[in-house]
Amino acid sequence: MQAVLYxxxxxxxxxxxxxxxxxxxxxxxxxxxxxxxxxxxxARNPIAHTKTRSERNGSTRKLYKQxxxxxxxxxxxxxxxxxxxxxxxxxxxxxxxxxxxxxxERRCALLSILSSKAAGMQVKVIESFxxxxxxxxxxxxxxxxxxxxxxxxxxxxxxxxxxxxxRNVPTVKVxxxxxxxxxxxxxxxxxxFTKESLEYIKSHFAN
Length: 207
Hints:
- The chain has 207 residues and is an alpha/beta fold.
- It folds into two domains: 2-44 and 101-206, Ribosomal Protein L4, Chain: A (3-Layer(aba) Sandwich), CATH 3.40.1370; 46-96, no CATH class.
- It has seven helices and six strands.
- The protein has helices at 20-23, 29-42, 103-119, 136-145, 160-166, 182-187, 195-206; strands at residues 2-6, 12-17, 123-126, 151-155, 172-176, 190-194.
């Protein structure tokens, strides 16, 4: 499995071999779907909250006697059936949407996405970014030379200059190679590594 290699200016310079242990796996769409659902579920921050009858203000006194009035029996004024009462089955802010997958499954799902990208010739590698390319306009020139219209740029977590230069490019998202995730990988078409970040994921996934 190979990927196109680019110079720091974004000019194609040849091919680079991709490790089949990370980019040559069988694609497991079921695991990919589970990991995407897990990421979205664990990112939820429920804020909608309705008050139950125990949280409503008001007396617990029975409104009128049980028998002899000719009306339906009734409890206190905080009953869900009465105006101003509690909500019986409304949303609660303490609801937990968290899902779990074991480490082996999560890793297999991510490597499936990487393998799918590689099989579709959507993985590209740039040798490095020039120390002069610390402005957004410089990054745009590099991306234009590489014909990137929708891409995730995976760099080392310590490449702060690249993060700052690329964060205002709407069609390219810069993330750390340690934070490869299904949402970004599936949202953007292409995946771009630097040579250093490509080596980094080998040690990262080996742990």
